[in-house]
Design brief:
alpha/beta, Rossmann fold, 6-stranded parallel β-sheet, 6 strands, 14% strand, globular
């Protein structure tokens, strides 16, 4: 009996392997789903936080490589996870086996300057997190909880922001499907992603802010499944 294709999920800044628990039930009938996580959170809490983009890419690459067991797989990443998914896809193309499709969300792609959040003063950093949305007020009202997550968030933002211009040199052959929320700043520039693949590209806007994915789990799962079906047809 043929194995289901694999799907690897890359979390957003401040996230962990549990961040996609809302989405996995809608995907598991189609895929073997694996939510990966960087060091310093979730089940890897005892490990040192990663603050370098290339180190984060290598970390996820080795995780994916170690559990890849199907002839077909896809990668999905949201926000920070989208950037790292692009880099890991490039590395997989060069060194092992390319995914059938890359699905990204909540991210405009390389080359579009974002705010530099990782070294902001504490109060300004709090305000930026509120602007991004998707974080309940209880998080900001509970000092112990906020102080626990702040270093994780800063480390993840540093991964993305410290050397963002270097990211424009990465390009893949794998098809890209990009999604953003209609209320996200710069969402009109979503098609910037087409510059980072020589393969097929498609972009789509869904209603909501940066964390629109929580309002659209079934739609997101359908998009990922359709990407798999379309890539399979094109491959054969």
């Amino acid at each position: 009996m043929n194995k289901k294709p694999q799907l690897f999920l890359f979390h957003f800044a401040g996230g962990n392997r549990y961040s996609y628990n809302f989405l996995i039930p809608a995907l598991s009938s189609y895929f073997q789903v694996y939510a990966l996580e960087l060091a310093g959170r979730g089940k890897r809490m005892g490990e040192t936080l990663i603050k370098d983009c290339s180190l984060a890419c290598n970390d996820l690459y080795h995780q994916l490589k170690s559990i890849l067991n199907a002839s077909e797989y896809l990668i999905y990443g949201h926000s920070m996870g989208a950037t790292l998914a692009l880099l890991v896809t490039e590395k997989m193309e060069q060194e092992l086996q390319a995914p059938l499709h890359l699905v990204v969300s909540g991210n405009l792609g390389p080359g579009i300057k974002d705010k530099c959040r990782y070294n902001m003063p504490t109060e300004l950093f709090r305000q930026e997190l509120k602007i991004l949305g998707g974080i309940p007020n209880e998080f900001f009202e509970n000092e112990e909880l906020y102080n626990f997550y702040e270093p994780i968030l800063r480390a993840d933002f540093e991964v993305l922001e410290k050397d963002y211009l270097s990211l424009v040199h990465h390009k893949i052959k794998t098809p890209i499907y990009a999604i953003m929320g209609t209320e996200e700043e710069g969402s009109k520039d979503i098609d910037n992603w087409k510059n980072y693949t020589s393969g097929l590209y498609q972009g789509k806007l869904l209603s909501g802010d940066h964390f629109f994915i929580h309002q659209h789990p079934k739609t997101l799962a359908t998009i990922i499944k359709n990407c798999y079906d379309r890539s399979r047809v094109l491959q054969y």
